[in-house]
User: What shape does this take?
Amino acid sequence: MKDFVIPDDRDMGTPAKTGAPVTLTIDGFPVTVPEGTSVMRAAAEAGIAVPKLCATDSLEAFGSCRLCVVEIEGRRGTPASCTTPVAEGMAVHTQSSKVKKIRKGVMELYVSDHPLDCLTCSANGDCELQDMAGMVGLRDVRYTPGENHYDPSGTGARSQAEARLRLPGGEANPRYIRKDESNPYFTYDPSKCIVCSRCVRACEEVQGTFALTIEGRGFESRVKAGMEGDDFLSSDCVSCGACVQACPTATLQEKSVAEMGTPERSVVTTCAYCGVGCSFKAELNGDELVRMVPWKHGKANRGHSCVKGRFAYGYASHPDRILNPMIRDSIEEPWREVSWEEALDFAADRMRGIQERHGRKSVGVITSSRCTNEETYLVQKLTRAVFGNNNTDTCARVCHSPTGYGLGQTFGTSAGTQDFDSVEKMDVAVVIGANPTDGHPVFASRMKRRLREGAKLIVIDPRRIDLFEGPHVKAAHHLPLRPGTNVAVVTALAHVIVTEGLYDEAFIRERCDWDEFQAYAEFVSDRRHAPESTALLTGVNAQDLRAAARLYATGGNGAIYYGLGVTEHSQGSTTVMGLANLAMLTGNIGREGVGVNPLRGQNNVQGSCDMGSFPHELPGYRHVKGAEVREIFETAWGVEIDPEPGLRIPNMLDAAVDGSFKGLYCQGEDILQSDPDTKHVAAGLAAMDCVIVHDLFLNETANYAHVFLPGSSFLEKNGTFTNAERRINRVRKVMEPRNGYEDWEVTQLLANAMGGGWSYTHPREIMAEIAATTPSFAGVTYELLEEVGSVQWPCNEEHPVGTPLMHVDGFMRGKGRFLFTEYVATDEKTGPRFPLLLTTGRILSQYNVGAQTRRTANSIWHDEDVLEIHPHDAENRGVTDGDWVKLASRSGETALRARITERMSPGVVYTTFHHPGTQANVVTTDFSDWATNCPEYKVTAVQVSPSNGPTDWQEGYEAQAERARRILPAAE
Amino acid sequence: MSPEKMVMMANQIATFFETQPGNDGPEKVAAHINDFWEPRMRAQLLEHVEAGGAGLKPLVVDAVAHIRAPA
Assistant: This one.
């Protein structure tokens, strides 16, 4: 069952250091560790555990509990081993009679203010206080009960059980504070707190939110969330779980553990939310998941997590999950539950029938960036090898397809250039069109840590994102550009770098084509690109822009991090090229701390692109026009491959409306909610004869489906995800699929129902086929992943354990290529009817279309989409905070509540798209990126006006959705 | 797809390549369209040009000679 040996998971007490080797002895055993290492960690390296309470290896040493005292020959006293650095020749004794006595005394004091309820405590079996009491041999507490924090009755009870007997239901101890149960996932029980400050330090050092403090002094000291009167929920706490992870007792405890008991087995796997790709230990009893705990050896997250991955997994067992296949002849009918065989035959007959009537190219697939590499590979193989066309696309179309095109054209491959660890060496971060604290929270925490160490931050975004200013972090520059003017701003940055002579000539001469650069320099030096010339257009102050350009070019290691605010524009690809130009100009590529880093939206956006999901590319980004590439797959699959590019998602929908595209297999994506211009998507889906939805839930797209194939959650299957740093991480099955099949098996069943003749028995065989056909994956095997944990592609003969940094000695394409980036205004323009610009995005607690997170307690933080609007724009329209407003564009209109905030620039409004009731995408238009058709989500001209509630369209939509979700009772 | 949308998409591509150096704009526009446009989209574009090419930028019209006609 557990097919992966977990590496050393011991808590080493203090963080690892790097430095010259130092040799010392611990209890006579010699040990060699890097300079700067604590004595505690050196002892742990030697296999000797020193008792500790306030120390843990995710946090800097604090030295408060005094339990870890040791004796060192030639030194006076009993220093704390956690705060004492090693020295050459040091001789440490961890078990002298003196330190043992001290430790027993310390423990006795701790336990004198701790309830003796161990057997019924939620941390029973997982409590460091309990472990340490055992380790130091505490056998009695000599203090008589006095002032304390744990006994509600104030009667001198030793345990809370006894207190309840003595004073049923009553509280007479003014020092006793009740449990804070406000957070949906964990509780804070002050009566069990030992004030070790681990939670406070985790909130600061690991998460960077600073929501927790120690309130009071001495005996009054308490952990406190937020300000006076706050509880955990109302404080700044983002529910990342770092404090719960750090807490050595039951003070901060997962509610799931309190309810289900301590887990007895664990499996390391990968989170299925965002593109950070955090490693987690799924901890279970039997097949019941008790909790998800961030895995300290995970190379993307280094032991940290966010509220989604850590806590929001309950959707996998939500009653809304559909577990049986269903079919219907038309979308007007209710669903009928049928056997897998009947559903697959129905689907296969329909798809083949469509192809017979309308031609080979009348059907296609949409692969999922939520599913594994292996599943995605099979879905594109289904269309290429079984349907016989290239009509495959993926949700990356609507997020990062411009990254693929832009970085492919300039650097030669579509991928982020760095690993996440690189951020620790970054000196200047340019964050453009991204909101990492909400979209990529664990990476944001790592970045904030570096910013607190003194690195500088430049934010280029219409909104003042949370990263802009927070505890001990303040951006050096904010360039609040008007939506749609990215290219003008990025080109102006290049103008400043070139005209002020801040470019790295040696780098350019060596790594790029010098003649091409000179032509580019001439282009970009033109006055029209000067920040002074573009200020009126972009709304960005020219001096600020110049200062930001100088900082990026001269401030040391400059790293660009970008998100969908860059790509989801009609000039998305051009902006990506512009960012690549900036990195090449300044030589910020090919080493640690620099680079161009797309922050990928979903867990496997990178992987789904790598796996040949795009209609023009076979796996490994190789165009279908290449006969030699087709031949590889023709040989492997025994079929002929169409040399013509297939339809992209928007093209599929257009062709459907035109009547030439009739059948779609859509795996794990909800295009009706996530894609722009909802009415057009609905019209396209409604025009098809066979829509097969393969998902966990009856999503919005399923309202227009004829076949529903139930999917398996990430907990129920084997495979791999590839995160934003190209890291291939294992997804491990921790429980049997509730729907009966892993998703790759469902695709195989469908392929075989259509005569595919596939016979995979495990995803490792699919990976073997990927490796055999795709050079950048040539060295990837499940055996290697078991051995090393994860690898970053390219992984091949040249890079047997992967490639953390790309373009180190040269660009993938040879010479880096400067492309001209001329600003072109989008056709989506404000005017008298639609005077405001709408931009859309997401927030921390909800994920994408919300199909998963809406089915968890995360909704407590965000139970509806709201429209953020600047006070000035609100006042002009007579809108006050919390009012219903109508949001209208030329595409459609919807209604939602307004939130008035100065985060917005005047003239710009913002909303999220997490709730189908709002359907923000009924407002967005079908304009798209010139190169890739990536929709222009980030710019829609809109009007906002007061309203009484949902629009007619919303009410009609809801009624239709309800009708479409009817399921006939199963036949007897 | 609607002719207006098709014309707009083609013009967007031309607009980018108009700004690039060199005299091979038509070839580059055509290469992009050959690489990314599915045959029925290319057929629609070619038919539109045949019918007069209303609304298309001159660079798109110039590119037509290099656009692969769908089989």
